[in-house]
């Protein structure tokens, strides 16, 4: 998977600060999951405000970073 140097550095930081098992097992809180679900629904139905759109994009970027960190952490298990 191709990543930018900024992502790569941040992912390495996360992978080094926690055990690989903790990273692989990480799950967002129920509150955060619900917020993402709400924004996803609104996105699919073209109902996002500009602020919500920005927040939704932030969630997507964060999800990408977490997936990459988990992939790297799995290499150490």
Would you kindly provide a brief summary of this structure?
With 77 residues, the protein is mainly alpha-helical.
Strand content: under 5%
Q: What's the end-to-end separation, in Å?
A: 19 Å
What's the number of extended β-strand segments? 0
Shape: elongated
What percentage of residues falls in helices of 4 or more residues? over 70%
User: Major β-sheet, in short?
Assistant: none
List unreliable stretches of 5+ residues: none
Number of helices: 4
Rg over alpha carbons: 14 Å
What pattern of helices and strands is seen along the backbone? HHHH
Structural class: mainly alpha
- Give the mean pLDDT: 84
Properties at a glance:
single chain; 77 residues; mainly alpha
């Amino acid at each position: 998977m191709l990543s930018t140097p900024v992502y790569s550095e941040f992912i390495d930081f996360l992978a080094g600060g926690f055990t690989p098992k903790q990273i692989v097992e990480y799950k967002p809180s129920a509150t955060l999951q619900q917020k993402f679900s709400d924004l996803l629904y609104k996105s699919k139905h073209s109902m996002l405000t500009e602020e919500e759109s920005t927040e939704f994009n932030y969630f997507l970027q964060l999800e990408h970073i977490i997936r990459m960190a988990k992939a790297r952490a799995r290499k150490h298990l």
